[in-house]
Amino acid sequence: MKINRKLVFTFLKIALTFILLYVVFSNIPLNDVWLILKQSNPFLLFLALVCFILSQLISANRLLQLFKWSGFDLDSKKNYILYLVGMFYNFFIPGGIGGDAYKIYILNKEYQWPIKKLTSVVFIDRLMGLIAIGILILIFCLFIPFFTTENLVWLLFALLVIGLVSSYLFIKWLFPSFLGITLKSVLKSILIQLLQCLCIVLLLSSISETDDYFKYVIAFLLSSVLSIFSFSGIGIREMILYQASTLLVFDSIKAVTIGLLFSILTAFVSLFGIYFHFNNTKIKDSKN
User: Fold this and answer.
1) Which letter does DSSP use for residue 271 in this model?
2) In a designed cystine with 87, which of 132, 173, 214, 270 is the match (CB 3.0 to 4.6 A)?
3) CA–CA separation, 68 and 87 (whole Å)
4) What is the pLDDT of residues 50-83, one digit of tens each?
């Protein structure tokens, strides 16, 4: 009997999501989270939504620039549609091909653009985001008292230099054609992540007042890196925030609550991709 590896992988991701959520809510009363959610500030939630949408628009634009840099003349409007449908696939279709694979499939089908080259663009797009997250985590750690009191600031700078040099050498070795656009893409990625960090700050402010914003933001950024291991990042995000609350000493209930709120915002925006998914819009029809 042949085992469908894709189906097994999907099952494991969904199972991991439920296991992590069970562990989190075994330690944190769901009623406490619900009470905090009911008391949240609607205006600040709206501002958080705006920040998230802006981050996704810039993210889609970053991908478009990478496509154009690689010689793929994709229409801007259709790129945004493709990106939105990709978000829908990532969040609502755990057993599907995935948002990134969907983009590659559609562009190859409509334009016969080479899959290998498209895959390189999508991979570099993800890598730029990962580099930005690493940079921001190390910078934000400067605002955590532990690193200053233990005289570990030098370690943060050392890791930053090592990370940047390693990333540069990796891209130069395997993807040299993208070197010319790397700096611009990384700066845009930092802006994207800063908007998402601001989104977290607004979500946190909507449910409570605190001075520990950097702790929550660092935990959120760490959860973003590991989110690929669960369904839509759900479960992993809440678990990382919960565990970080013990390590960095901040409110675990608030941490889990903002994790859930961020998932809700992501689901809300991703849901708009359903129109273009079922409308079967052809990318090629709108090409300039």
Assistant:
1) T
2) 270
3) 21
4) 999 999 999 999 999 999 999 998 989 999 999 9
